[in-house]
Amino acid sequence: MSKQSGVIFIGNKPPMSYVLAIITDLSSGKSNEVTLKARGRAIATAVDAAEITRRRFIKDLTVTSIAIGTEELPAREGENRTRAVSTLEIKMTKK
Amino acid sequence: MSKQSGVIFIGNKPPMSYVLAIITDLSSGKSNEVTLKARGRAIATAVDAAEITRRRFIKDLTVTSIAIGTEELPAREGENRTRAVSTLEIKMTKK
Fold first, then answer.
1. Domain boundaries, chain B
2. In the β-sheet with A61-73, what is the strand arrangement from edge to edge?
3. How close, in Å, is residue B69 to chain A by CA atoms?
4. What is the pTM of this model?
């Protein structure tokens, strides 16, 4: 799971790993906002992580915006078309 | 894939099945709005279907709102806890 300030990239670990990353990020005190970014199958994991954090751990965390999009990935070797992959971004703020 | 007016429930078929359902729904002329509802792993398929429809087929379709949530499902036989499953709702409007 890569990180840059306030942004958590969701991969294929279990949702709980990202829940922990969100909690750590918000308790660092640098910012009261965190953004989850996911693409492809990891999109479902991003929603899981957001919901588990909000419901079980940080009750005053609210979803401020959700955006969907598409990213063009370079063609795999032997293919000659770029691949399109869906993306999801969830921004959450702690009051 | 179940249907009620203007709502398309996303299951585990390929995204293209739902793209077709969206296009059919919008061309019926009943409404210029359609809502995709998905839970669990199907959440990624919902985003795929929305993005494919918007980018490839109906260019003037815009996402008007996206919401995430959690649904409590009854416990499976032999278990005594309800299961929580994440949900996603994407509302889109054709201009």
1. 7-94
2. A3-4, A7-9, A33-39, A83-94, A61-73
3. 7
4. 0.91
Chosen for mutation from A12, A19, A41, A47 (greatest number of chain B CBs closer than 10 Å) is A47
Does domain A7-94 correspond to CATH entry 3.30.110.20? yes
What the block records as the tokens of B72 is 């409590």
* DSSP code of residue A42: H
| Contact residues, chain B to chain A, C-beta under 8 Å | 40-44, 47-48, 50-51, 55, 63, 66-70, 84, 86-88, 90
User: What is the pairing mode between strands A3-4 and B7-9?
Assistant: unpaired
Q: Greatest CA span in chain B, whole angstroms?
A: 50
- pLDDT tens string A72-84: 988 888 888 888 9
Instruction: Give B-chain residues touching A42 at CB under 8 angstroms.
Output: 44
